[in-house]
Amino acid sequence: MRERASRKGVEPITVREIVETEKRERQEFFELAARFRDAEDPEDVKRLGDQMGQMVFGE
């Protein structure tokens, strides 16, 4: 089980929190992908593509 630090010590992260985090990250990715798809400026395409790469592969 994952844990996180808090003022009271370490508390477990619930499955609900994990699911909500994954949903939020998925939504952020799809929004970024839509912006990438609609981008026409080559600099925007590169920047958005780099951001997508970081989301998929990490930094």
Number of strands: 2
C-alpha Rg (nearest Å): 16 Å
Number of domains: 1
Q: What is the rounded distance between the termini?
A: 25 Å
Largest sheet: 2 strands, antiparallel
Summing up helix and strand content along with how strands pair, one would put the structural category as: alpha+beta
Helix content: 55-70%
Q: Please state the overall shape, judged from the principal axes of the Cα atoms.
A: elongated
- Given as residue ranges, the uncertain stretches (5+ residues, pLDDT < 50) are none
Strand arrangement across the biggest beta sheet: 1-2
| Order of helix and strand elements from N to C terminus | EEHH
Mean pLDDT: 88
